Amino acid sequence: MEKTPAIALKNITKVFGKIVANKNVSLTVYNHEILSILGENGSGKTTLMNMISGIYHPDEGQIFIGGKEASIQSPRDAYRYKIGMIHQHFKLVDVFGATENIILGIEDGRYDPKTAQRTIMATCEKYGFEIDFSKKIYQMSVSEKQTVEIVKALYRGADILILDEPTAVLTPQEIQKLFAVLRRMRDDGKAIIIITHKLNEVMEISDRVSVLRKGEYVGTINTAEANESILTEMMVGQKVSLNIERTDPKNIEKRLVLTNVSVNSNDGRPILKNVNFTAYAGEILGIAGISGSGQKELLESIAGLQQLRSGSIIYFNPKTGREEDLRDKTPLQIKNLGVRLSFVPEDRLGMGLVGSMSIIDNMMLRSYREGKSVFVRRKEPHDLADRIIDELQVVTPDAQTPVRRLSGGNVQKVLVGREIAASPTVLMVAYPVRGLDINSSYLIYNLLTKQKESGVAVIFVGEDLDVLTELCDRILVISGGVVTGIVDGRSATKEELGLLMTKAKHTEEEGTK
Amino acid sequence: MKTAGEKLKREPLVHISKRAALPFWKSWLIRILSIVASLVVCAVIIVLFTGDNPFAIYGTMIKGAVGTSRRVWNLMQNVAMLLCVSLAVTPAFKMRFWNIGAEGQVLMGGLATAACMILFGNKLPPALLMLVIIAASILAGAIWALIPAIFKAFWNTNETLFTLMMNYIAMQIVAYFVYIWSVPKGSGKIGVINATTNAGWLPSIGHNSYLLNIIIVAVLTVLVYVYLKYSKHGYEISVVGESENTAKYIGINVKKVIIRTMLLSGALCGVAGLLLVSGTDHTITRDTAGGRGFTAIMVSWLAKFNPLYMVLTALLIAFMQKGATEISTVFGLNDSFSDIITGIIIFFIIGSEFFINYAVKFRSHKEVEAK
Amino acid sequence: MITSFIHRAVMQGIPLLYGSTGEILTEKSGNLNLGIPGIMYVGGISGVIGAFLYENSLASPADANAVLAIGIPLICCLLGSLIMGMIYSFLTTTLRANQNVTGLALTTFGIGFGNFFGGSLITLVETDVPSITLSTTSHYFSKTLPFAHKLGWFGEVFLSYSFLAYLAIIIAIVASIILKHSRIGLNLRAVGENPATADAAGINVSKNKYFATCIGSMIAGLGGLYYVMDYASGVWSNDAFGDRGWLAIALVIFTIWQPSIAIFGSILFGGLYIVHNYLNDVINMTMSTQELIKMAPYVVTLLVLIITSMRKKRENQPPASLGLPYFREER
For A5-236, CATH number? Predict the structure, then answer.
């Protein structure tokens, strides 16, 4: 197996407005190899790959393919260079079927979907993929969609395959299947790039690892010579202790009790099935699960944004001692009951904040109704904005700046700051550190711990099992809408959690067989 | 299949990227430049058709628009009417509800006004009649806007197409009543309603029959500005327009806001209908709205949905229309000339927004040879 | 009487069919072109200008050459509407302007353009004819199959139309086949549904949008030409084309974005447009009732719009990115 450079980047720089996404990045990928590109969120991995696949165009630098300089102006050019990219957000047309999506954009002779479908089926058989050709994309599950994406790249004869965070949406079994396919393709002579921030996957699948930090290239090492602590150091810059200070819960009392909560999606599919748990004041309850297992719907049910098919959500009001059922109440009704519920949703700019509005106006989202006047008051929100900018070190020109112009970490600080400022009794946060650098992440973890110490019931939906086991007092694991276990955060292991995260899927699959 | 080497020569000549915000004066400079550019293009076209000195022609235009005091009043009346409809569509647009049904909503308001004038003209005391007219016209416009709003709120029915259809239904309803009430019977025309008694006519202030219209619209402009910028409703409209999910998240009842805002939008259209029928024409035809429902969309959009800027954009468009009409009369051309001129100016202003929002970089051409 | 009703309904339906086929192609690429009414005016008046200049250059109508008499207006019409399509595409695709505003401005401009030249053509070229009546050109445009009238009702219903009418149906069928069964159609639909995906698959989004919008405009423009030359027998009168352009846009919704359904839809709409004249013979109606019946096409369209939105069937919805500009480097 002779290794030749398949693709080489020289001094690539890309700037968006004032943000430098990539600065002087140089790296090489060979045929017959799997290269991991490792970096924290926001380190510029995806931007870099988008330049290889023609979505963006580098401001400076050169790309060499097979030793020759290449000019990739568009995705079409990328295909010409036999580069295939599987994006994190699938690039599929919802109302098309698999075949139509796979052949989209290919121009070779006569348009003949039927023959194409036979070729696709042959490819599928070769690698062991399963595609239901009668389904439209919008009827498919996430992993089916990913399969279509990979087959799409293969069908185009991609020799250089780029996968952007391919495992985030998969179960461990599906991940193993994917890795097997990737290895087979590597043995075929293809060059494969995996973008990820998960160290264990890097160690498992890749031959070499290239690390990016804050848009800059740090270095490349052979996986055989690497271990997780070396990689972490490269990724973060200095040795960081990954220990979160976890205090023991004090003055625990019942705050929120969910009983038999079931939720269906708009098209009638069950998303949550008979969920039962209790959230206590003074502790952090972690929620673990593969993304899309119902975490979003669970939090939204509590916040009054989802219609429950059955069950109850009882809130124990610490002030009045009364019990309130939050089921079938709107967010406003919940608020008017005196329930102080704060919620940091996963989609910050799409749900938690309004991107085009200033920080001040975003502060008003929670409080604008106060007072009898028909007019809004901007004084208090202005003070609050100034306070949050000051206390959480939000980097912004001023409080009038639209939130959209801030970087991901600062956006999150604004949102978390506002939600905490409402002095909640229940604080729900979903993936609060997604897209944040390590320092900001720890700032957020500390804020959550502080909230817990002051007697708030914190519910934390996370994806990083290390963080979950270090931050949370108890961890609830959800899989396919079913709670598969609630474990103690101090004694739980990652393996145990991983098993629980896929448990229901097994039993369900066995049940249908 | 082409090899990589052949493709290399294609460095992009222009590169487009999204700008951070431009300073206020720069963005307005670009807009003003675009208007100047459009006037140059219009001048060329005018010269092509008339063969005259373009400056003389723009002189004719200015004279046509503001040459005499009567013309000034006429222009102001036109601005007021256009502005009124523009104010009406603005709250809906801020909510990203593409209400292009103002034409129909104005017509329904006008129809209600005309109906009250005809049916109750000689039966009710003037003050009461006026109250009835006001209530009826506002109600009619509001109802016409409410129907698409309900479907949008509950079934997400496409409002652009819905309101468009409602325009033509309104026109046919007006046409129907025009036949029913036509004077003389069967002529298909209503003529001036209550020409002798002036019942249901908006009163003149001094000797000026338009002044009241203009004052009413001026007051409305300030009210709408304050409503959108400082009221809780206005804030809710912005949130719903920017992100429906955020609105739900903070407990705004999105359906309620859509319906409430469209009711307001329709009600203001109803007022425009009232001003047109009771305050201006004193009659109704299916053309009473006169395309203002569509022009208003451009006025509102050009002003970035800011009611105060809308005074300027409405003035610009009304001025150009009046001026171009004058050119056509002087040079014996068809008066649709004004639509062509208006169209060209709007094209330029629409196009200029691109240069405000995006930065265009030209690359120096460098050949890269690959070995 | 029924045969003559169908005949008139088809005559009324053809301009709508052109307009809606053009608009369907345009909308499939994600462009909601509200400029169609203006484009149809421009298509009509461009043909009229061409024909007018040609007819005036002839010493006598007998000198007219059939190829030129048809070719000149046809090419003028296509060019005029192409330019309109280019303006729209340039503003919305290249400059990413708001589609609704651009479309409405285009309609204002187009109707103004049509009426201006309709009213001023004679003054501008300084001829001494009293009005624009292009009977020579119209004679060529409205030629029907010679044996049509010999075949009784069958001839009248199916064969008694001019070539532009059949062309409309052919274009609609071809458009339908292209959209459903060709690579061009697949690419176009992908662009309208999800431009980012189409882009990533190597499809040139801007090119497709330009292409669909310009072809769509040219097809719509032919509707204007058909109206003047055949339906109105070569007589241009201002505003006579009326709201047919908007009706064509309505028809797009009615047909749930399928040109093949548009063939029947347009005839149905054509029938609804004139049914008041015929009903009048059966049950005596006042003028006012006739006006009420004229709203039928709009009411029917509304019902279709409401029903499809309530059923929420994905395939029957408008193209997902309809009305939205696309910028690749959006962040």
Answer: 3.40.50.300
